[in-house]
Amino acid sequence: MLLEAVYHRPKLNWCYAYDGRTIHLRIRTKRNDVTAVSALAGDKYIWDQSKAYVPMSKLASDELFDYWECEIVPEYRRLKYGFLLESGQEKFWMTEYDFLKQPPANPDRLFEYPFINPVDVFQTPSWVKDAVFYQIFPERFANGDPSNDPKGTLPWGGIPERDNFFGGDIQGVIDHIDHLSKLGVNAIYFTPLFTATTNHKYDTEDYLQIDPQFGDIDTLKRLVNICHERGIRVLLDAVFNHSGRTFAPFVDLQKNGENSRYKDWFYIREFPIAVKDGIPTYDTFAFEPLMPKLNTDHPEVKEYLLKAAAYWIEEADIDGWRLDVANEVDHEFWREFRRVVKKLKPDAYILGEIWHESSPWLMGDQFDAVMNYPFTNAVLDFFVDGIGDAKDFANAIGKQFSRYPRQANEVAFNLLDSHDTARLLTKCDGNKDKMKLAALFQFTYTGTPCIYYGDEIGMTGGHDPDCRKCMEWDEEKQDLELFAFYQNLIAVRLKYRALRTGKLTFLSAEADSTSLVYTREDEDNLFVIMMNNSALPAEIEVPVKESRWENIYTKVTTVVKSNKLAAQLPAYGCAMFRAIKS
């Protein structure tokens, strides 16, 4: 047994309260090195009467490690615990201090979860587990009110550039809300709606005003009310890392320099503010001089931004915030932000834009979730770009899943493209079957999936600005077969809870293979999903215990022989089976 590979620490994703009564324990071991793990757990004050061994099961694996997990509901909301590691006849007990060859004589040096204090439990909004998001870039979705078009607005459907406008607005979303209801989505994520100079609006001028080219607060209220009547939640985008060049305090700073009362609202390295050799003399987003970084530790800045965060929940009844460049803002600001938002709307969804491992933001005091780009990268590598084999893919998914507590995984924002990336169909070189495989995994994985506007009708586009084309509303130019595919995918996901929060197990994910088989299972349903990520047909067969299976797509019932479930899959084909329990 390679003890150097064994890892556990209290709190974070290794020992945490899932709810007010339940504790999840996890431990890491070298892959395929340990045959069984148990938690030795009990109450520290009545150890001899309460101690027991709780079997742990494999939560996930990656290329190096296995991750084990168990769930314990302690009677008195506290836990003393260690681990028993077994490999054949070899046994070790792990305490907080040592590895022992005999059971620990007393609990003094075991790990401890002192007490489940309700206020410390990381609670995420339950509705997000059942959400299917649809991302809208407002300027390019639909022009519902030509009277508010900015000067120089171009005819709908032209070539998108970084600085042109086509007149998309909030009324346009209202006019096409039936499209979203027909598709089946139940949540919308809008890129910024607030006053700004650009078409993308990430250079905020006024955090308390809807940009006039999109409408006004009454238009937004009307949209939110319509969405809520249809069971659709609304998530707005906030840019608190930086403002725009026309933000009033920055305008004052440009005018008055060191004498500006707002100079400490920003991070100025040198006066007068200027750009020298392409580098501003003040901190910005990237090196963009038009997006000065805000000092979110400054009391007045904090007060202003938190006022904005509260205002749109109070006034427009929005359901949460997506937070731009979230990892460049100080943690203490986000802690205060969470307190403000959750006080007003306890089930508001707080989503941070972070492209990397994000544990420091997912400890229950800041975000509910982050945009799950490690998931995105894993899916695109395997299904789209052909990087790695099925084993590599399963390892990448296992590694990412093991990083966060379950409640964060359940509401992770799983996207495959966005306004910041090339479109999914373009990444697939127009191969719809590849696109469907990637989307199928996205919609049968834990977390909330998001569709980028237009993907459902076959829109294409390279990197920004090409991915920000005007939505195609001419049905003769829409891919209605693809729309029906997404429609069905959403309906199946929403029908079966196992596809949203059930346990995922890879049944077949081998090295040098492009075939993938995994299960999603809860107490009500068991699914086996088969994928042939290859340009050649394939026959896939896996062992199963159940005898009768329903093909979700064809509705045909199969009775298996010799406990083998098999399917002939075409190139880039898939099959989804549900066990019919007797």
Provide an overview of this structure.
The protein has 582 residues and is α+β, with helices and mostly antiparallel strands. It has four domains: 3-120, Sandwich (Immunoglobulin-like); 126-241 and 296-495, TIM Barrel (Alpha-Beta Barrel); 242-295, Oligo-1,6-glucosidase, domain 2 (Alpha-Beta Complex), CATH 3.90.400; 499-579, Golgi alpha-mannosidase II (Immunoglobulin-like, Sandwich). Helix content is 24%, strand content 25%. It has 14 helices and 29 strands. The strands form six sheets. Strands 1, 2, 3, 4, 5, 6, 7, 8 and 9 form a nine-stranded antiparallel sheet that branches. A hairpin with a 6-residue loop joins strand 22 (503-508) and strand 23. The protein is globular, with a radius of gyration of 26 Å. The model has no long low-confidence stretch (mean pLDDT 97).
